[in-house]
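Please, structure for the following, as tokens.
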Amino acid sequence: MKKSKKQSRKQNINHFLDRAKYYNNAGKYDKAVEKIKIAYSIWEGYKNWESNKAQKMLGKIIDAREIVIHNYLTVEERKIRAIIGD
């Protein structure tokens, strides 16, 4: 039998960020935030968090979080503008 290959921390983070991107595009912001939190908890497992690799992954997580926040606020603003009639 073939052994399953253990995924690296980077692959796991990228997987959860991809899932967050999917949920963000689907308008399910709560699930997107949940996936970003999981990615961040995986990132916390880096022993040397000051390394370039760890900082690059943290940058990706922060960017994903900012995108979700921006999209959520845009949707809510549109709802309020529709109510006001603007």
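Helices lie at 9-25, 29-43, 52-84. The chain has three helices and no strands.
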